[in-house]
Write a structure and sequence with these properties.
The chain is mainly β. 7% of the residues lie in helices and 32% in strands. It is globular.
C-alpha cells in the first residue's frame, strides 16, 4: 500500500515504475524508493530469517542502523534494504542466517 493522495500533503507525484524480482516473483516498484518501501507496498513483511532459530525479521529502525532488514540483493548478502534504492532488474532474496555470496556454493 502506498499513500498516493495524502490528506494534508495532497496528491503524490507520478512516479516512474521499475520491475524487480523478489524471491522469484516479479514486483513493481517506484524508481528510487528504498527496497524496503517497495516490499512493504507489495505486502512483503519478512526480509530475513535469523541464524539460530530461523525466526522472521523485517523492517525495524528504517534508517540503516539495525540489521533486521538485510537481504541478499543481486547476489550480495547483508544489504540494508531500508537505505538502498531500488533499480530496474534487481534480484532480491530473503536472507537466511548470515547470508551467502552467490556462486560460492562449495562453502
Amino acid at each position: 500500500m502506498r499513500v498516493s493522495n495524502h490528506p494534508i500533503l495532497g496528491p503524490g507525484e507520478q512516479e516512474e515504475s521499475v520491475a524487480i524480482i523478489v524471491d522469484g516473483r516479479p514486483v513493481r516498484a517506484a524508481a528510487g524508493e528504498p527496497i524496503a518501501a517497495a516490499l512493504l507496498a507489495a505486502g512483503i513483511r519478512v526480509f530475513r530469517l535469523t541464524t539460530r532459530r530461523g525466526e522472521p525479521r523485517g523492517l525495524f529502525c528504517g534508517i540503516g542502523r539495525c540489521t533486521d532488514c538485510v537481504m541478499t540483493v543481486d547476489g550480495e548478502p547483508n544489504v540494508r534494504t531500508c537505505v538502498t534504492p531500488v533499480r530496474d532488474g534487481m534480484v532480491i532474496e530473503t536472507q537466511r542466517g548470515e547470508g551467502r555470496w552467490q556462486g560460492n556454493e562449495a562453502d
